């Protein structure tokens, strides 16, 4: 398989903990997000980022819609 891969590793001097990428006050987290978005833009035909708010669909059956594209 020809699967594109980008890696992002920091040496131990950054003192990052598990799931640092979710702590958006850290410069390394911002760097990680930028690199993820760049990777997605290079390797997908669509970013999947919603640019307009979808109207809420009334759901009389109270089912949870699992497909975010519907």
From TrEMBL:
It comes from the Bacteria. Residues 58-70 have a biased composition (Low complexity). Residues 44-70 are annotated as: Disordered. This is Lipase LipA. The gene is lipA_6.
């Amino acid at each position: 398989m020809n699967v594109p891969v980008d890696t992002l590793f920091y040496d131990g001097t950054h003192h990052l903990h598990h799931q640092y990428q979710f702590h958006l006050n850290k410069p390394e987290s911002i760097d990680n997000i930028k690199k993820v978005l760049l990777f997605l833009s290079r390797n997908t035909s669509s970013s999947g980022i919603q640019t307009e708010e979808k109207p809420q669909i009334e759901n009389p059956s109270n089912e949870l819609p699992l497909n975010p594209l519907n």
